[in-house]
């Protein structure tokens, strides 16, 4: 165990550890927002909620969908692979998009938390 930690320290710089943490934090927060929405409204969040036209509820759901998007993309991808037999390339691309989105939202959340703790 100690050898793997030492080897990991040589390979992973502090910046890459921070990026890995932001990626995991982004996915975790996305799942929490999605589960919280489902708990409150008793339905799954979906990108179809944006097609209701210009209404107050549509504008209110935008922040939720921005944060929960990585979870929603991966959920739709896994369901599409199981039910429709989507090709590997599509699943791979969707995973890359969800991972990048999670990384970016995680970085915004981590930076916001750091700024709030310094104030």
| Helicity range | over 70%
Q: List low-confidence stretches.
A: none
Mean pLDDT: 86
- The SS-based structural class is mainly alpha
Cα end-to-end separation: 39 Å
Number of domains: 1
Determine the strand fraction and express it as a percent band.
Answer: under 5%
Overall shape: it is: flat
How many strands appear in the DSSP assignment? 0
- The arrangement of helices and strands along the chain is HHHH
How does the major sheet shape up? none
Using only CA atoms, what is the Rg? 17 Å
Could you write a compact summary of the structure shown?
It is built from four helices and no strands.
What do these coordinates show?
By secondary structure, the chain is mainly α. The chain has one domain (18-118). 82% of the residues lie in helices and 0% in strands. The protein is built from four helices and no strands. It has helices spanning 2-11, 14-41, 56-84, 88-118. Helix 2 (14-41) packs across helix 4. It is flat. The mean pLDDT is 86.
What are the defining features of this structure?
119 residues, mainly alpha
Chain-wise SSE layout:
Elements (H helix, E strand, L loop, with lengths): L1 H10 L2 H28 L14 H29 L3 H31 L1
Helix pairs in contact: 2-3, 2-4, 3-4
